[in-house]
Amino acid sequence: MKLHKLFTSLTLFSFLNVGTLYATNGDQMIATGTKSMGMGGVSIAMPFGAESGLANPALITYVKESEISGSATLFFPNIETKTKRILSSKSGKYQKSDSTFYLMPSVQYATHLGGAAYAGLGVWGVAGMGVDFSGSGDPLLFGMKDDLMIMHIAAPLALRQGGLRVGIAPILQVGMLDIEMMGSKIIDKDWEANPGAVIGLAYDFDNGLILGAKYRTPISMNYSMERGNDFALQQPGEFGIGFSYNVGPHTLAFDYKLIQWGSAVGYGDMGWSDQSVYAVGYQYRSDDWTFRLGYNYGKSPINTGSAQALEDYFNLLGFPATSKEHYTIGGTYSIDKSLTLDLAAVYSPRVTTQGNLVGRSGGATVNEFITNRHAEFSLSAQLNYTF
Fold first, then answer.
1. What was the pLDDT predicted at 33?
2. Which residues are within 8 A (CB) of 334 and not within 5 positions of it... i.e. 6 or more apart?
3. Which class is domain 3-386?
4. pLDDT(9) > 50
5. I need a labelling partner for 75 at 20 to 30 A (CA). Which of 40, 117, 248, 254 fits?
């Protein structure tokens, strides 16, 4: 067994049977921590303790001593798809994907090493999607069943000098891909691991205003297909800027991210476009509890109704990354001086998207339509212990 695959198996032992995540901003979670989740995904200039180690490693410099956090997210996606042949007067019925519930844990740690230095370690679920139409009676859904799961194991390091904070988080990206069509395995739960990094900056003006910026490198993955070839699927690079402003118990934060799907191998080949994501969040803090609200918007990177009709069809069938809006609410309760509990809920309202498949087969014209309905709801809980 290759060394990196052995490391992957040992590190993710407790994660192997929890299922995949689900598409939000493309196939990426809107946030990688429960506090951030409750504020619409803002994380570039909003310090959240140990959970900030991946979103912007510069922000772990706000950890006073040491902090460890553990979280679990329950995902409830609702995917329904129907097809129609143009020569048929009848439209097929919506078929519901059997992938309706997922559990995803994460854990992270950050500490003040002394002086200007800070460090951390964590495992975060960052991306994924999946559908299961293997039991569908619609032959045009081809019995599609797939799972994509991406996790990041990262060790953030950060320095603080006056108001300036600089951080870098080397990443080991671990991914699993499983694709089945018409009862045949195309990719059979292949695991892959490759390196990357996140670089972050923040500047605290000491008047309530914090500015932040980040860049995450693209990370290439090559999954082994049953026919012996590799399927390249590169998680995209990402730029982001943000700010947070605090006045008394009130904090307002905003993030802008550019996710570079269009230049990512695999996604770009399937017609995905770069995605601009906007997030805004509000926080009210008291002595024993904190309340959060947020909103996140990112136009789907999937292009439908274009000349790349076969790709439209496959995207909506197996990779329906069509969510646009996310409404979030959350909060924190202080159990004691060292232990706090975070809660968050995210609702993404239903989006209906149509694509088409146009071509020729055996001299006959093929013209089929596929319509996808996609909604999401999730609940997250996180315990934080400072020492």
1. 94
2. 287, 288, 289, 340
3. mainly beta
4. no
5. 254
Select from 322, 341, 328, 264 the least CA-distant residue to 97: 322
Question: 118-159, pLDDT tens digit by residue?
Answer: 999 999 999 888 899 998 888 888 899 999 999 999 999 999
Exposure of 301 in the CB half-sphere (CA atoms within 13 A): 27
108: amino acid identity, one letter: Q
Write the secondary structure of the chain as one string of H (helix), E (strand) and C (coil).
CCHHHHHHHHHCHHHCCCCCCCCCECCECCCCCHHHHHCCCCCCCCCCHHHHHHHCHHHHHHCCCEEEEEEEEEEEEEEEEEEEECCCCCCCCCEECCCCCEEEEEEEEEEEEECCEEEEEEEEEEEEEEEECCCCCCHHHCCCEEEEEEEEEECCEEEEECCEEEEEEEEEEEEEEEEEECCEEEEEEEEEEEEEEEEEEEEECCCCEEEEEEEECCECCEEECCCCCEEECCECCEEEEEEEEEECCEEEEEEEEEECHHHCCCCHHHCCCCEEEEEEEEEEECCCEEEEEEEEEECCCCCCCCCCHHHHHHHHHHCCCCCCEEEEEEEEEECCCCEEEEEEEEEEEEEEEEEEEEEEECCEEEEEEEEEEEEEEEEEEEEEEEC
Give residue limits of the domains in the chain: 3-386
pLDDT recorded at residue 314? 82
Could you tell me which of 330, 376, 249, 335 has the C-alpha nearest to residue 36? Answer: 330
Residue with tokens 């979280």: 71
- Report yes or no: 310 and 355 within 8 Å, Cβ to Cβ: no
Mean residue pLDDT across the chain: 88
Tokens of 242: 């943000």
d(CA 148, CA 17): 13
pLDDT confidence of residue 112: 98
Q: Are 218 and 237 in contact (CB under 8 A)?
A: yes
Two structure tokens written together for 300:
């789907």
- Phi/psi of residue 102, each to 5°? -140, 145
pTM of the predicted structure, to 2 decimals: 0.90
The residue type of 30 is I
Closest alpha carbon to 110 in 72, 153, 63, 152: 63
d(CA 59, CA 169): 11
